[in-house]
Design goal:
Distance between the termini: 26 Å
Largest sheet: 4 strands, mixed
Structural class: alpha/beta
Radius of gyration: 19 Å
CATH topology: CBS-domain
Helix content: 40-55%
CATH superfamily: CBS-domain
CATH architecture: Roll
Shape: elongated
Length: 145
């Protein structure tokens, strides 16, 4: 089982100049928790829903609602992304990608093929692979009876 078999191909990406509200809207519409930041075909970073939440001002802010909205509307993902994220090759065994996510305490990794972004692998993808494999084993066990 390789990463390529279970990754999400052609993930939604943003540029470093995408604003935080635009990124938040993309995540909400797509129902996902991370966006890869790409420019000129190069992977520059990753921005997560947690990064977006942390970029928001606290309730203790002395700024007015209008000032806060003005500042957030101008904030770009390059200012809050994690640069140079860990990534994996599409030919890597899925178990190795899962181990990397576990050790790094991340929920997803960009997937590269010869240095080019081709997908993203997440904990959800790994769980799907596990369940699919379990189902295959159950079917195989039933057939041998």
């Amino acid at each position: 089982m390789t990463v390529k078999e279970y990754m999400t191909p052609n993930p939604v990406t943003v540029t470093p100049h995408t604003t935080v509200p635009e990124a938040a809207q993309l995540m909400k519409q797509g129902g996902f928790r991370r966006l890869l930041v790409v420019e000129g075909g190069q992977l520059l970073g990753i921005v997560t829903d947690r990064d977006l939440k942390e970029a928001m001002p606290s309730d203790a802010s002395t700024l007015s609602v209008w000032e806060i909205n003005y500042l957030i509307a101008r904030l770009e993902v390059r200012e809050i992304m994690t640069p140079h994220p860990l990534s994996v090759s599409d030919t890597l065994p899925l178990q190795a990608a899962a181990k990397t996510m576990l050790e790094a305490k991340v929920g997803g990794l960009p997937v590269l093929h010869e240095g080019k972004l081709v997908g993203i692998i997440t904990v959800t993808d790994v769980l799907r692979a596990f369940l699919r494999r379990e189902a295959e084993l159950l079917v195989g066990a039933e057939e041998t009876k």
